[in-house]
């Protein structure tokens, strides 16, 4: 695993939140290149665990209280060059809404078959495998 760009900029933690057979996706007000729809995510703060950052960002962006289930994987994102970690999370409470109106335009609970409409370039393989397992079963 290369450490490119990680010395200057913190890693990004993404939360893969599945509830009632759908995965939570958010649309940023300002897209990062092709990235418009994505998972709730944000920078890992100094001394913060990746899983904790994913939980915190989900709360800040969507108002949902979630718990980390497991780290699915990490990579240097091919579109942004940022170190990304992906954490599977379960909903503990709350109702998802656009809590961070400066960052987010909207959110959606997306069914398995709808994912390609939101993310046409495909998902990180461990995330796709996880969603295949939990959303299809």
TrEMBL record:
Keywords: Hydrolase. Its cofactor is Mg(2+). The keyword Hydrolase applies. Residues 7-132 form the Nudix hydrolase domain. Pfam families: NUDIX (PF00293). CDD domains: NUDIX_Hydrolase. The keyword Disulfide bond does not apply. GO terms for molecular function: hydrolase activity. It comes from the Bacteria. Belongs to the Nudix hydrolase family. This is NUDIX hydrolase.
């Amino acid at each position: 695993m290369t450490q490119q760009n990680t010395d200057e900029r913190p890693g990004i933690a993404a939360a893969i939140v599945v509830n009632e057979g759908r995965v939570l996706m958010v649309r940023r007000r300002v897209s990062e290149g092709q990235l418009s729809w994505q998972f709730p995510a944000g920078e890992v703060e100094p001394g913060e665990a990746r899983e904790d950052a994913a939980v915190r960002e989900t709360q800040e962006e969507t108002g949902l209280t979630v718990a980390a289930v497991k780290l699915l994987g990490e990579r240097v994102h091919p579109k942004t060059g940022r170190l990304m970690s992906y954490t599977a999370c379960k909903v503990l409470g709350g109702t998802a809404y656009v809590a961070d109106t400066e960052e987010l335009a909207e959110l959606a609970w997306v069914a398995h078959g709808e994912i390609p409409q939101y993310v046409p370039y495909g998902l990180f393989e461990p995330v796709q495998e996880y969603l295949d397992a939990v959303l299809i079963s």
